[in-house]
Amino acid sequence: MAALTGVFLSTRLTSCISTSATSPALPLIHCGRGDKKTAKGKRFNHSFGNARPRDKKKGRGPPRVPVPSSPGKKDPYDDDEVIKIDIDE
User: Fold this and answer.
1) For the chain, does the N or the C end have fewer beta carbons within 10 angstroms?
2) Domain residues of the chain, as ranges?
3) pTM across the whole model
């Protein structure tokens, strides 16, 4: 009986070790400084490319016309009614 439990323990340990030692199939996705495809990653890596061109005028497209800001949203509970309150002292 003791020999059987030893076999089961050894198979459990090897299966646990083999699954934990393997690396994930998908690589980790970096966003920001470590990402070589973003401008921040290009600045961090001191490199240039499509996200961060060496020539500032290249790849920017036509100049954008500034759009005026939209008016603020109206409060649904505000009915613009003013109530005058008389305080007697």
Assistant:
1) C
2) 28-54
3) 0.32
**CA distances to 21, 52, 87 from 18, in Å:** 5, 42, 81
pLDDT > 90 fraction of the chain, expressed in percent and rounded: 7
What is the predicted pLDDT for the residue at 15?
46
Burial of 53 (0-12, 13-18, 19+ CB in 10 A): middle
Q: Is 84 left (phi over 0), alpha (psi -120 to 50) or beta?
A: beta
Q: Degrees (nearest 5) of the Cα angle 47, 53, 54?
A: 75
**pLDDT(84) > 80:** yes
